[in-house]
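Quick one, tokens below:
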């Protein structure tokens, strides 16, 4: 048996399968803080919208309610992923729990958009009196609180890896919820000012515009989270770099799979064919230090005489 025929010792590839984001604890802590702030703001907006009759203000409150649910889901996902990070039942770690939470939050956003749209249409067909003077300070206060929360949940530079532009999608989902709410808050303020000028239709119209905006955010988030959950190749750039390195001396990469494991973490499975195969460790060494690559499985085959056969495989 040649060196290439000899599989690498499995102990040499024992790994840490914790594929959590670099800022996991920071993001979890800030998510809980923002959840508490948004819950208090939710009560103020809903009560204010009910007492003043402002649909735009009520829309902002309903959207804030969706945020509270979304933030609770995001915070719970962080805690669950952290507690089970070393659980062997999760074959590739718990990094994808955040993507599952992000997809769930996209659904919440979509439902919120539908509710706001339905109520806005009802108000257009059957206008109601709005107490604009009372609604104004509540809307302004809600917007300021939302902007503070947007700042608190702003992703740090650490999460933006070269080959993982999505970073921590769980945090991005929560941040997107609040960014959408800030936009809705601006629309609510505009509607209140317009209403004071006698344009009563502006209030339900602002609600409809808010619904469209929230639906747009929901669709974008759903696509990103769904892509990670069904293992769509997250980075053609990283895939091309892996292929280039593995075929550096004329080898053929006959099979290559790349998928996302968590924020800043990717896995790759590669099958290499070569006339003069080298040890598996040689090919793994070519990928060493490649940013964003956390789990590698390599299989080497001999292509001499027009046929392939296994010469060893290993992972790290």
């Amino acid at each position: 048996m040649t060196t290439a025929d000899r599989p690498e010792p499995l102990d040499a590839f024992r790994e840490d399968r914790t594929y959590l984001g670099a800022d996991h604890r920071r993001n979890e802590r800030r998510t809980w803080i923002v959840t508490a702030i948004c819950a208090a703001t939710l009560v103020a907006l809903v009560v204010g919208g009910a007492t003043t009759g402002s649909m735009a203000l009520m829309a902002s409150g309903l959207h804030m309610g969706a945020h509270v649910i979304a933030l609770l889901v995001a915070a719970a996902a962080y805690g669950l992923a952290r507690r089970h990070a070393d659980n062997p039942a999760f074959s590739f770690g718990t990094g994808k729990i955040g993507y599952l939470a992000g997809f769930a939050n996209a659904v919440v956003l979509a439902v919120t958009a539908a509710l706001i749209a339905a109520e806005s249409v009802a108000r257009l067909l059957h206008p109601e009196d709005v107490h604009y003077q009372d609604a104004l300070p509540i809307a302004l206060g809600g917007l300021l609180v939302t902007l503070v929360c947007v700042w608190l949940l702003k992703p740090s530079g650490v999460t933006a890896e070269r080959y993982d532009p999505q970073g921590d999608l769980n945090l991005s989902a929560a941040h997107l919820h609040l960014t959408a709410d800030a936009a809705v808050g601006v629309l609510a303020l505009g509607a209140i000012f317009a209403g004071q000028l006698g344009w009563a239709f502006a209030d339900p119209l602002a609600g409809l515009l808010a619904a469209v905006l929230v639906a747009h955010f929901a669709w974008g988030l759903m696509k990103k989270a769904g892509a990670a959950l069904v293992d769509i190749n997250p980075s053609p750039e990283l895939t091309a770099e892996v292929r280039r390195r593995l075929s550096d001396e004329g080898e053929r990469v006959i099979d290559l799979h790349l998928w996302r494991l968590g924020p800043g973490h990717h896995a790759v499975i590669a099958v290499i064919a070569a006339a003069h195969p080298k040890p598996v460790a040689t090919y793994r060494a070519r990928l060493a230090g490649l940013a964003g690559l956390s789990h590698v499985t390599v299989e080497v085959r001999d292509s001499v005489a027009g046929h392939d056969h296994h010469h060893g495989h290993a992972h790290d």
